[in-house]
Amino acid sequence: MTRKIRILDTTLRDGEQAPGASMGLEGKLVIARELLRLGVDAIEAGFPMSSPGDFESVRSVGELVGDACMVMALTRALESDIDAAADALSTAQIPCIHTGLGVSESHLRNKLHMSREDCLARVEASVSYARSKCDLVQFYAEDAARADKEFLARVCETAIKAGATAVNIPDTTGYSLPQDFAERIRYLRTHVEGIDDVVLSVHCHNDLGMATALSLAGVAAGAMQVECTINGLGERAGNTAMEEVVMAIALHGEELDAHTDIDTREFVRASRLVQSITGMKVQANKAIVGANAFAHSSGIHQDGVLKERETYEIIDPETVGAGSGRLVLTARSGHAALRNRLEELGYSFDRDTIDEIYERFLAVADRKRAVYDEEIESIVNEYERQSAAVYTLEALQVSTGFPLTPTVTLTLSDDEGSRHTVATVGDGPINAAYDAVNQIVGLENDLTEYVVQAVTRGTDAIGEVTVRIAADDRVFVGHGADPDIVVSSVRAYLNALNRALIARRSTEYAN
Ligand code: KIV
Ligand code: ZN
User: Which ligand is closest to the CA of 74, given by its number?
Assistant: First the structure.
């Protein structure tokens, strides 16, 4: 049997640090559910001291996850941060505090203004304080890949003696070459007393496009845990992509003496979900989950694959969930069929919720020959978005064409039960509809991005729109899905405005 490599997902923490990738609480819970389907060993759910939103995210993920996996919260090496993490983790059944500080010369000198001795004292104090609050404590040595090796070993040993149950070695800036990173992990394994009694973790960034290679080098050198995100989401060039590192381990398990417990068939779905919630799309040639990852267009390649798939394909697309978009339901499918399919897709809803989702499903199915899994997921996501809305779309009438002036009549309801109707004209139907929304909602903002994408193939596919707005000095992402793209566009814009309004309300409440 090969070594089990633990997979720690940090999409909700390090992934969300990507500029403009904010997910909102409801988005984070949808992703957390998907992480459970993937079977990750740990979810890093946020940095509780950084904002009330992150605090709530750790609490809610802890509640959701139960004993299915470990839930982690990030802290700086400060008692106030550790207290906040311990409070936020009180809902988790397997909580872990992830504390640490910068250990390279550059971090000590320029950021922390600390001597090496002060740093060691801080490691000892923070880890033992965290251990007094939580049985599981992972220590991170930020910028470990650029730190002096001997000092790094002293830091790790101090953390272990103070009670750390796991030690995380990040290449925070994605600077290393894989062979140097591997050598560093080997060095720590031979120079740090007690290192084999704790979980040795690697956490790599992709600044030179090598995050996956670095993580695998770490595994080959003896690391037992990889920290990663879906789609490699994260600051700058991102983190290690879970789908890449797990598939590499799956294909090279014997050489690496390694396996993971991840259900790889969930990868494409997880990828789509994270793209849809964050609005951060992956490129078509992204390994494992890109639209072209299994597409063969050259004649020679097509011929080879038709004769024998393995000629040009190292992975069977089905093993990562890149099947051909299975046909599932039609307008004649009943309530039970939808419930059954939702359960197979991993959703469990109460009866009233299924009734409401069924109504939406029928509205889509009446307009299409067949409804695919991706579209069912899109309907569920749209339902979840609208359940937490301040303004909801009630009616939209659009008249457009050439050479007509686009005209829109739009009705929104608000969460106090009032209905608002306005009529507008515009340069195009979307412009007229957005103007109508602005007249009702009245929230000053800049629309900085608007993207429309079909969820499946075919002209009758659901169109998913993602927008980004800047309001109140923040960026808010919104999504909307419907077979009619003017409706999707209004829903996406409303979703972003609703998020901005909810954020404004919670700031007003906090003040
Ligand atoms: O990249 C990094 O060093 C981190 C730590 C906070 C774990 O994200
Ligand atoms: Zn990081």
Answer: 1
Do 476 and 343 have their domain in common?
A: no
Q: Which two tokens stand for residue 434?
A: 């957005």
Report CA(237)–ligand 2 centroid distance (Å): 11
Q: Is the CB of residue 173 less than 8 Å from the CB of residue 143?
A: yes
Helices (H), 287-428: 299-307, 335-344, 351-365, 373-387
**Residue to mutate, 172, 205, 206, 207, ligand 1, most ligand atoms under 8 Å from C-beta:** 172
Q: With respect to residue 355, please indicate whether it lies within any of the assigned structural domains.
A: yes
Per DSSP, the chain holds a count of helices (H) and strands (E) of 17, 18
- Ligand 1 atom nearest 14 alpha carbon: 8
Nearest CA to ligand 1 atom 6: 142
Residues with CB under 6 A from ligand 1: 14, 140, 142, 168, 170, 172, 203, 205
Our count of domains for the chain comes to 3
**Ligand positioned closest to the Cα atom of 143:** 1
pTM above 0.90, yes or no: no
378: containing domain: 335-384
Residue 228 lies inside a defined structural domain of this protein: yes
Q: Output the CA–CA distances (angstroms, integers) from residue 393 to 174, 226, 399, 410, in the order listed.
A: 45, 43, 17, 8
Q: Are residues 132 and 267 in the same domain?
A: yes
> Is 243 in contact with 288 (CB distance < 8 Å)?
yes
pLDDT in tens, 385-407: 777 789 999 999 999 999 899 99
pLDDT 10s digits, 98-141: 999 999 999 999 999 999 999 999 999 999 999 999 999 999 99
